[in-house]
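Slides due. Your pick:
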Amino acid sequence: MTIRVVIADDQMMVRQGFTVLLNAEPGIEVVGQAVDGLDAVARVDELAPDVVLMDIRMPRLGGIEATRRITGPAGATVKVLVLTTFDLDEYVYEALRAGASGFLLKDASAAELAQAVRVVAAGDALLAPNITKRLIAEFSRLTVTPHAPSKDRVDGLTERESEVLSLIAQGLSNAEIAGRLVVAEQTVKTHVGRILVKLGLRDRTQAAVFAYETGLVRPSGY
């Protein structure tokens, strides 16, 4: 199945460069481009892509609010991959909270770009866990948000589900979680699915943000 991509960036060279790179990859097709956040929302409504590569700083409507509008409606399935120039950008954390599934540095190689799109489209792993985990931990520690989710929601999880959620937030893949808990990988997938349903979350990245913001996982070593 071909992964349909929309690229949203106010720089023409970025849009065209990523379009060329992605269209050269098997199973990926760039179906549209957007010059700002409002354009991105319109292109998503028109083209129904699987993944949006979203710049953060754009005129008229920025990438954070555009991400919120794209991923917010009930039943929304499109994944947003945030583009940034450096990996500890506070706006990236806000984009993750708004609904983005991961982020990618603009200087990524063609292989890294294609892999990122495939990972986000699949929704089965954090993008660049070592970096994403650090970013989530750093800004959940530094950012005081009055809208942080209630920890009471965690009480609806079983002990094993809470354990799996904690390991997701630490950046472990399903296979790594299975190894840590000495269970089958399919069992982990089942737990992950139940966690997302119970907490009303979209994907593993949102689950990781939730775990840090509720204090289930404490940032450390950053």
